[in-house]
Amino acid sequence: MAVPFRHLCSRSRTAGAALRASLPVKFAGRSISSASAGSPCSSRGFAASLHSSWTQSRGEAGQSASCSSEAPALEVVRSHAEGLLVLGARSSFATGSKSTARGHVFEHAGREWVCVFEVDRYWWAAPLKMEEACWLQVEDRSNHGESCAAECLARPTPTQAERAQLSKGLNTGVIAVDTLAPVGVGQSMLICGPQGTGKSTLAKQVLEQALTLRQVDKAFRFLSDPCAPPADPAQQRAGALVEMAISPSTKQGSASFLAPLFATVGAAEAVRDAGQNALLVLDTAEPVLKAWDLAVQMAEACGNPMNSDSLAAQRRAFFAALFERAAVLPSGGSLTMLVLLDTEAMAALAAAAAGASVADSNHAFQVSDFEGRRPPEMERLRRLEARGVALTAQALMAVGIAPPKSSSEAPDNTAVGGKASREMQSLSDGQIILDKTAAAEGRFPAIVPGASFSRFGLGGSGSKEGAPARQARDVRPPTLQAVSAHLRMLLALEQEAHFRPKTDSVDGIQSAQLQAVMAALLQPPGAPLLAEEMTVLLLAAVSGALDPMPSSRVAAVLSGGSRSPLLCHLQEAIPSVLKKIAEEPQLSKVTIRELEVAVRLFVKLKEAEASPDATTAAE
């Protein structure tokens, strides 16, 4: 919740004047007459339902007691090219005035600004209009004007009572995403990783697949990176994709992009509130993180003591104003959000994981080193220790547990990779973590299985005997659910040498099959898969039918997405089986058997092609 300006009550006008860094500013440079006080300001085009967001005036030295008919005069305490730190008005029962609120618009130095979030006792205001920001492929700008950002900020996020339960999945076309961290319609998902790991490419593929299969009515993309991969021009021309782009020539810092970013969010909300399905892709979270970091620095420069707990609450309220707009409404409308976070992949787990300063990478922690963690996490650690697993930093990262931070480590004061980005991860409905090393090796998508997850996309669909039936939580198709159960944890453990079996032949076979699954999860951009095709590839990888082939050949026939050699063969040989998998509510034994026979015949064909006799006959 937002923290009120409790310090302003007792502040005298003399003390307030001492804090002025510039002249007082007035709302949009205009006054509201007594007849229109408390009504929406028509010059900003706000709906009547938003009139509570506007503020009345608070007393200033030399002003009459009837100042409630005037717009509030705000004090600019600190000024920066990317934003202002202002003292806002506080609500007064005696005068009928109301507090400054998010979305409040005012004018300063010939420019319009909008209040975005509270920091300590102040408000951070961002420039409302940027010449460097413009809508692409937009003819009707009635819902895409400058007021769209202010309206979005002033509009509250849907409450829990106003939300419907997530029940439908979004087919992303990316087998690794749909298997390890599925995206539900109405869900918010972070895509985290350092530069060069393919975040924008992955988000673009998800966006295009959603539009191609008509899973959403309209898609929106906020672009601040001029090098971001362009979307399909045909979808742009059809009006299904709308983009807000920041000019690459801009000299403004990213903190000044808040208004264009929230204007994009507001346009997507309009589609959601109209009962349609919208997909929103924000190619960076940097404007949000940088604005908060800059606001805190400016507030600290004022010299007043700051309460860390209050700041944490204000930071969470600010980030929640973005992420909680993703929702499914009872009316049928939905907003699905993908946010790209540029950070080290393992920093998505914790600050210590990003730059763990452990002198020995093989250093094993003790369970007692994790005192104070959540009980479920402590229980997992005890089980790992009971199994003889060394609690090293790498092993902990594989299962999604942050190593304990050494007391000698320097505090993490950076916005990216620090507390602010971790706050985002706690508010989002899931995260996809991309690994820089895997991306450098040419693997796409370079997803880290143990660190990537979906809070609402996975879960049991059954209930205990005698308990009331509950709605399924898993948003994946039933056939894909069955074949990908537990794969995320098994793959995470398989990637760590500490967990790989060395002697047991049975476990060795399972390890080979998991390596085959990893190969099936690799697909180049532009080779999207349907849910039944993902199911076929995963079933072939774990069935054992490919075991006679060398591991390098197995990887070659499974990888490639829709261009996978095995998938192309099965589409020609047994198209009826793929149709059954797409239509069946559960995988039948007959369907599984037919698929296994077809895969074994494929293996025999490949063996025949590679045999010396076949080579001689061909010559």
UniProtKB/TrEMBL annotation:
<feature type="domain" description="ATPase F1/V1/A1 complex alpha/beta subunit nucleotide-binding">
    <location>
        <begin position="173"/>
        <end position="345"/>
    </location>
</feature>
<dbReference type="GO" id="GO:0045259">
    <property type="term" value="C:proton-transporting ATP synthase complex"/>
</dbReference>
<dbReference type="GO" id="GO:0046933">
    <property type="term" value="F:proton-transporting ATP synthase activity, rotational mechanism"/>
</dbReference>
<comment type="similarity">
    <text>Belongs to the ATPase alpha/beta chains family.</text>
</comment>
<dbReference type="Pfam" id="PF00006">
    <property type="entry name" value="ATP-synt_ab"/>
</dbReference>
<dbReference type="InterPro" id="IPR038376">
    <property type="entry name" value="ATP_synth_asu_C_sf"/>
</dbReference>
<dbReference type="InterPro" id="IPR000194">
    <property type="entry name" value="ATPase_F1/V1/A1_a/bsu_nucl-bd"/>
</dbReference>
<feature type="region of interest" description="Disordered">
    <location>
        <begin position="402"/>
        <end position="422"/>
    </location>
</feature>
<protein>
    <recommendedName>
        <fullName>ATPase F1/V1/A1 complex alpha/beta subunit nucleotide-binding domain-containing protein</fullName>
    </recommendedName>
</protein>
<dbReference type="InterPro" id="IPR005294">
    <property type="entry name" value="ATP_synth_F1_asu"/>
</dbReference>
<dbReference type="InterPro" id="IPR027417">
    <property type="entry name" value="P-loop_NTPase"/>
</dbReference>
<dbReference type="GO" id="GO:0005524">
    <property type="term" value="F:ATP binding"/>
</dbReference>
<dbReference type="GO" id="GO:0043531">
    <property type="term" value="F:ADP binding"/>
</dbReference>
